[in-house]
Specification:
GO cellular component, one term: lipid droplet
Strand content: 15-25%
Pfam family, one: 3Beta_HSD
Pathway: Steroid biosynthesis; zymosterol biosynthesis; zymosterol from lanosterol: step 4/6
Membrane topology: Single-pass membrane protein
Bound molecules: NADPH dihydro-nicotinamide-adenine-dinucleotide phosphate, ligand LHIR3OJJ
Main location: endoplasmic reticulum
Order of helices and strands: EHEEHEHEEHEEHEEEHEEHEHHEHH
Strand order of the largest sheet: 3-2-1-4-5-7-12
Length: about 350
């Protein structure tokens, strides 16, 4: 029987490697001596030791070029949650992930690490210190969440000892840090438009926000510990800062750090949620005529007004995970990295 020659285990590919998390992951992998192929729909930077392949992950032939001689694939590409485009989420997160799995098989890849999301269990009500065995959301709050659930299932079901192909899903929550295009920019935009005066609910709700370097650390541990017969095979793992914080304290620290005022006045959660739902409906109906992008979407209001924090005990036990950057330091580094978003800049 002909033996298949295995690619070097220091060769990996990052699908979505031009994005926020993907680029931080690529930089860390290069530091650790990996040869990295980035596959993304756009190229945003150059880095020694990294080869870029521009293409759509739904295109298997384009993917196969990038996966040549690769043993580990990190899949961290997704349309932005704010796009709220059902067909796009279905095409990229579900059909595209099937294509990624198929391409991994054809290229002889051994390990696939998916960036999933802790929000796969979030339905808009409180989640306190949840473990990974909490069932997926039965009524996902948006298309992003709906397709992240399907995507995670596809990847975990593809794990196969017979095929020598091992898969794992990392579930981060509320990733933030330098170059994040979402959390800090959306927050500052809302503050600049005078929309950050109010606290939704009583402000006591605890949430996980996870510094990007901790998320990267979780991904690399996962890739390096994943092998046949390891408990990591076909499992999902929460990766957080392990320091739940009051949502509104976190937002206030970022805002005040950048020179804006902290929100002060309270609004009832159900009232704001109802208005957000109504605005979403109006935007949906008007979509063929005009694109309206409300700041306060039902998902954002739900995230801002409920508890949602997750236990990462499983990651600690199975892969020795511990956050490498504590929250206080992470917030300071993040604030420092956005001089252009400071008040008056
Ligand atoms: N940010 C967060 O708080 C959290 C994120 N996640 C997950 O982490 C992952 C990374 O997120 P993040 O870094 O924030 O997102 P980004 O949007 O910054 O990065 C995703 C990258 O994937 C690219 N991409 C999108 N569609 C395709 C496609 N069809 N083919 C190839 N590349 C594509 C994007 O390009 P373009 O920008 O042009 O679309 C972008 O460069 C995602 O899977 C997300 O679901 C999970 C939990 C929390
Ligand atoms: C306008 C304000 C009420 C809120 C501003 C901050 C928000 C933009 C962010 C607060 C929590 C974030 C979050 C995500 C995106 C950005 C926030 C809503 C995710 C939805 C990103 C994708 C995920 O997988 C889950 C994240 C949960 C937290």
């Amino acid at each position: 029987m002909a033996t298949r020659i295995r690619p070097s285990n220091k060769r990996c590919a990052v699908i979505g490697g031009s994005g926020f998390l993907g680029r931080h992951l690529v930089e860390r992998l290069v530091d650790r001596g990996y040869a990295v192929a980035v596959f993304d729909i756009r190229q945003t930077y150059e880095l020694p030791g990294v080869n870029f392949y521009q293409g759509d992950l739904c295109d298997k032939h384009a993917l196969l070029t990038a996966l040549k001689d690769v043993s580990i694939v990190f899949h961290c590409a997704s349309p932005a949650p704010a796009s709220d485009d059902r067909a796009l989420f279905q095409r990229v997160n579900i059909d595209g992930t099937r294509t990624v799995i198929q391409a991994c098989h054809e290229a002889g890849v051994q390990k696939l690490v998916l960036t999933s999301s802790a929000s796969v269990v979030f339905e808009g009500s409180d989640i306190k210190n949840a473990k990974e065995d909490l069932p997926y959301a039965k009524r996902p709050i948006d298309y992003y969440t709906e397709t992240k659930i399907q995507q995670e299932k596809l990847v975990l079901e593809a794990c196969s000892k017979e095929m020598d192909f091992f898969t794992i899903a990392i579930r981060p929550h509320g990733i933030f840090g330098p170059r994040d295009p979402q959390l800090v920019p959306i927050l500052v935009d809302a503050a600049r438009r005078g929309k950050m005066k109010f606290i939704i609910g009583d402000g006591s709700n605890l949430v996980d926000f996870t510094y990007v370097e901790n998320v990267v650390h979780g991904h690399i541990l996962a890739a390096e510990r994943l092998k046949a017969d390891s408990p990591l095979c076909a499992q999902a793992y929460h990766i957080t800062n392990d320091e739940p914080v009051r949502f509104w304290d976190f937002m206030s620290q970022i805002l005040v750090g950048l020179g804006y005022s902290a929100p002060r006045y309270h609004l009832p959660y159900m009232l704001v949620y109802g208005i957000a739902l109504l605005l979403w409906l109006i935007a949906f109906i008007m979509r063929p005529l005009v694109q309206i992008k409300p700041t306060f979407t039902p998902m954002r209001v739900a995230l801002a007004g409920t508890h949602h924090y997750y236990s990462c005990a499983r990651a600690k036990q199975d892969m020795g995970y511990q956050p490498v950057v504590p929250l206080k330091e992470a917030i300071a580094r993040t604030v420092e990295s956005y001089p252009h978003l400071r008040k008056g800049a």
